[in-house]
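Q: My labmate handed me this sequence with no annotations at all. I'd like to see what the chain might look like in three dimensions before we decide whether it's worth expressing. Could you predict it?
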Amino acid sequence: MTKRFFITIFAVCMVALSALADGKQAVATFEVKSHDFGTIQEAKGPVSCTFEFTNTGDKPLLIIDATASCGCTRPEFPSKPIKPGKKGKIKVTYSPIGRPGAFKKTVKVKTNGKERTITLHIQGTVIPKK
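A: Here is what I predict for the chain of 130 residues:
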């Protein structure tokens, strides 16, 4: 196992234990939870959007993991805890190569917050290469 994995597990445990001790929690509040790319060109390659959130709770927020519904979608998320009142971003990139037509994908975000799993949505229509 990697050092980063153990550090992440340790941080999650510490944050969870401190929340249990005093009843305070982290809260991930997203500005929006869905994004419509509209019509995109397959030939232009991957497209990205960013989902911004704020920790509106009173404990540090840790994004434990973010997983996409398929390999064509790649989420990137902060590895360090987000302090109360601070903002964070999750970048989601969709690759339209070889995928003409409409698409709807999800990204499941796991946190140590009040809402343990948050689902983000992306959609659009891919115009195939000529």
